[in-house]
Design brief:
Endonuclease, Chain A; 62% helix; elongated
């Protein structure tokens, strides 16, 4: 049976494409314990993160809410990591998705994946500024030192300092997310 995606699912698909996040649509999840169905179908599967993504488009309908609650229970009992997006989340999908992905990666103790996600995000938004700064620094140090090895050493040192600062910022963000999750 062919699935016709809802408008909300189309918005999520567009967001994932624009964010360069690989996904599989309508991913079949077979043989789940304590489930009345032979299999479940998740709206999206994000293979890089090993996390499913469900759009709860019919949540406002009574039968939809019951169906989603059952699906959530089955996923939880089978240790299936899933991010849930409600219709009222679509207006701030960029922020909501990233916060929920961070929280889910932290909950699943996928610290390396979380670190890489954060670094990629910083790189995607700041790479032009970073490259311009390196060119300027290279020019200044080249003129100051007149020696390519000293110039390269200075640039590499600055890159290391920038990476350390990014890592400290990411670590602070993890602590805030973890503290927020412990309160809930």
């Amino acid at each position: 049976m062919k699935h016709n995606p809802t408008e909300g699912e189309e918005m999520i698909k567009d967001f994932l494409l624009e964010s360069n996040i690989k996904y599989e649509e309508q991913k079949k999840i077979p043989t789940l314990k304590n489930d009345s169905k032979k299999f479940r179908i998740a709206d999206f599967y994000l293979p890089r993160f090993d996390i499913y993504l469900e759009f709860l488009g019919d949540w406002e309908k009574e039968e939809g809410e019951d169906r989603y609650k059952e699906k959530m229970r089955v996923y939880r009992e089978n240790n299936i990591s899933c991010i849930y997006i409600w219709p009222n989340n679509l207006g701030s999908l960029n922020w909501i998705f990233k916060e929920r992905l961070r929280a889910k990666l932290l909950e699943c103790k996928k610290y390396r994946m979380l670190f890489l996600f954060e670094i990629e995000k910083i790189w995607r938004t700041e790479w032009i500024s970073f490259m311009i700064a390196l060119i300027i620094l290279g020019t200044i140090t080249q003129n100051l030192f007149k020696n390519i090895w000293i110039t390269l050493g200075t640039i590499i040192t600055l890159i290391i300092i920038i990476c350390i600062c990014c890592c400290k910022g990411i670590r602070r963000r993890y602590k805030r997310i973890k503290a927020r999750n412990n309160l809930n």
